[in-house]
Amino acid sequence: MAGILDKIHAYAQSSLLPWGETGTIISNEAISMLAQQNTIPGHVVERQALAKSIYPLRYLRNMQSITIKGQQRLLESTVAQVGLGGLGGNLLEQFLRMGIGTIHAADGDHFEESNLNRQELSTLNTLNQSKAYAAIKRAEKVNPSVEFSATEEFLTVNSLPDFLAGADIVIDALGGLETRLHLQQSAAKAEVPLITGALAGWTGYVSVVIPGEIGPADIMGVNNEAEGILGCPAPSVMLIASLMAAETIKILTDTHPTLQGKMLVVDLASSTFETVIL
Can you tell me the distance from the alpha carbon of 166 to that of 161, in angstroms, rounded to the nearest whole number? Predict the structure, then answer.
């Protein structure tokens, strides 16, 4: 990596940072070029830059909220995300922008017009397109430094173990409740923490499930009538996704406290947030 470091220094520039100090930065263009020239992922170049206190410009506004070490941990992390719909599309957008280095996702569904009210990846141009394909195209546009793959498949009990292999964290962005327990159990068998969230109308919940501990899927059942009756308004979807993303970042950067062993219940209609001990 010595050669890479020399090249990083060659493209780095001194700049006044947002928090008032003078520091060293490197542009996204330079990172992409170095990644291509050396046939390595952009997140590897970014990690090397941060190791020398050179800030990739795209993450500059992450700094002070998370540390250099925290950003490095995100860049070297692998996320396995199941679902690319309402919650999943919003989560993917945030993970790409925060700089999680490797993301594997799966969703066998296609976009339809009823998705347009809340799904980040759903546009007039992506109608009838597979959610996996739309996610790949979005990732290329937002952050090419991230190694992103998406499988056009509804995962099963049999296919989940292979999908989760090598992940540092599992994201439950499923719609409905039918298969959430299978995912929770598969994450536990893989000994990987799970971030889960769901909503119906203006209410929703978020939780962190550590392997061997109880999770929402153990107590919520599989009845999806609430979501069908109450709908999925965009503010609820985006808020639950943001809370899940925040818990993911905290787990990956070893920041406390988290919602481990708890369930945060949100009701936007009454503007209330309650924490339930599981």
Answer: 10
Per domain, the residue ranges of the chain are: 2-68, 77-277
Taking residues 110-122, report their average pLDDT: 97
The whole-chain average pLDDT of the chain stands at 96
Pairing of strands 169-172, 194-200: parallel
Q: Give pTM, 2 decimals.
A: 0.97
CA 261, CA 115: separation in Å to the nearest integer?
32
Taking alpha carbons only, the member of 221, 208, 194 closest to residue 263 is: 208
Tokens of 61: 């506004």
By CB atoms closer than 10 A (0-12, 13-18, 19+), residue 274 is exposed
Could you tell me the fold of the domain covering 77-277?
A: Rossmann fold (3.40.50)
pLDDT of residue 205: 97
Is 81 in contact with 173 (CB distance < 8 Å)?
A: yes
Question: Which residue in 94, 104, 134, 133 sits closest to 116, CA to CA?
Answer: 134
| Nearest C-alpha neighbor of 144 from the set 41, 19, 259 | 41
Nearest by Cα to 100 from 59, 64, 128: 59
DSSP 218: G
Instruction: Grade residue 2 by pLDDT with cuts at 50, 70 and 90.
Output: low
Return the structure tokens found at 106: 């799966």
Residue 130 DSSP SS3: strand
Per-residue CA distances from 138 to 80, 143, 160, 236, 244 (Å) = 17, 8, 24, 22, 20
